[in-house]
Amino acid sequence: MNTTNDPARRSWVESANDPGTDFPIQNLPFGLFTRGEGDTPRIGVAIGDQVLDCHELVARGLLGSDAPARVRDALGAPRLNDFLALGRDHWHEVRVELSAILHEDTPGLRDDAGARAACLVPRELATMHLPMEVGDYTDFYASLHHATNIGSMFRPDNPLLPNWKNLPVGYHGRASSLVVSGAPITRPMGQTVPADGADPVFGPVKLLDYELEVAFVVGPGNELGRRIPIEEARTHLFGVMLMNDWSARDVQKWEYQPLGPFNAKNFATTLSPWVVPLEALEPFMIPGPRRADDDPANLDYLTWADDFGVDLTLTVEISSARMRETGTAPTLVSTGNYSDMYWTMSQMLAHHTSTGCPMNPGDVFASGTVSGVEESTRGCLLERTWRGQNPITLADGTERKFLQDGDEVLISGCCEREGARRIGFGPCNGVVLPVHETVPA
Ligand code: MN
């Protein structure tokens, strides 16, 4: 930890000192935004209710002026990938500089109304985009509670497969359908089997679900044929986002054997707009999970004495179209914590690259559904309603087994602890639209 994490640190951006803000000066997450239609996206940093425009800061000589040109170029670029490629030392230098620019005692921008108006954009006026071009996206399955719950529904006699505690199970997802919070989600079509033994049919997916997940953004990658050792994971990981891995359970049930999820998962995955740097999360890091005495020991390539988790509280809310029309607050569906996971982000990265599979700056991998022991901590409707047996009731009195058209799923997350400033992640939301009536051209 360093001065950027100091809980006493305050900004001249007054809204950043509000105890409830997601974006105090201790956070400084990176995103990509535009102000007007047709604008070229710019890298921005969230501070209180504002976005600090990195492109503008660099152009005015206020950021990176002592850094190598490639750092300035990366900060002025229309995507985060070049910045991600710079690596941990440069990330730290830029963070220290941003924290200094925004510190309450730093004049400069604070006292220059013209520069302030050019460099700060009210967040409500900024349109957010996916921060980076994601070349590859992988989804893991790292919660023991989720894997056991799902396994017991799909395979009651054999819930947890024999590999599960030996390696972090994952599948290669589709980067092409990653979208940013707020993008609508069209209900997909799919091939399903209406009842065991019946003939398959093709039609709108009926069992549409969300999955509450945490996603990790890769910085410098590895060459083909080279591994990322687990103890070097921190230098390859820039930050953390919230994620909703929208899932079609009826499709999944029919298709998932023998090669795992395919169309059940490839139609949409929502990411929050801000990448929270791991450096901002240091006050909330906890030792990696302890294994039960009768669990298999980690093999060496998955063992790191300094491995870590993050104490990150996550919530899922649902609001129906009717609730939004009538101004009714969303219904809280579950509250989980990322510290409940069995596999760590370092283990997932080390395992993924253990074959020499290359990672590139901007690649994303995600945790899998975050579920804990309690019913209220289960991170998807399949588990939360136990395959529809125990529907939840929304504030408008309607019941949900799975998602209906018009439903909005709202995921949020924050880190809170005595002696540290609260760090938030911003929204990870999406509204379900009806299936396309006709096949679009
Ligand atoms: Mn998932």
Would you give an account of this structure?
With 441 residues, the protein is an alpha+beta fold. The protein has 2 domains: 3-129, Fumarylacetoacetase, N-terminal domain (SH3 type barrels, Roll), CATH 2.30.30.230; 137-433, Fumarylacetoacetase-like, C-terminal domain (Fumarylacetoacetate hydrolase, domain 2, Alpha-Beta Complex), CATH 3.90.850. The protein contains 11 helices and 27 strands. It has helices at residues 54-59, 69-76, 81-86, 88-102, 113-119, 144-154, 233-236, 249-255, 321-325, 345-352, 381-384, and strands at 30-34, 42-47, 50-53, 120-122, 127-129, 137-140, 170-172, 178-180, 185-186, 189-192, 201-204, 208-209, 212-218, 237-244, 247-248, 269-271, 276-277, 285-287, 308-310, 313-319, 331-337, 364-366, 392-393, 399-400, 408-415, 423-424, 428-433. It starts with 29 loop residues before the first strand and ends in an 8-residue tail after the last strand. The mean pLDDT is 96. The site of manganese (II) ion has 6 residues, from loops.
Outline of this structure?
The chain has 441 residues and is of the alpha+beta class.
Q: What order do the helices and strands come in, and which of them pair?
A:
Layout: E1 30-34, E2 42-47, E3 50-53, H1 54-59, H2 69-76, H3 81-86, H4 88-102, H5 113-119, E4 120-122, E5 127-129, E6 137-140, H6 144-154, E7 170-172, E8 178-180, E9 185-186, E10 189-192, E11 201-204, E12 208-209, E13 212-218, H7 233-236, E14 237-244, E15 247-248, H8 249-255, E16 269-271, E17 276-277, E18 285-287, E19 308-310, E20 313-319, H9 321-325, E21 331-337, H10 345-352, E22 364-366, H11 381-384, E23 392-393, E24 399-400, E25 408-415, E26 423-424, E27 428-433
Parallel strand pairs: 6-22, 8-16, 9-27
Antiparallel strand pairs: 1-2, 1-5, 2-3, 3-4, 6-7, 10-11, 12-15, 13-14, 13-22, 14-16, 14-17, 18-19, 20-21, 20-25, 23-24, 25-26, 25-27
Bound molecules: manganese (II) ion.
Manganese (II) ion (MN) binds next to loops.
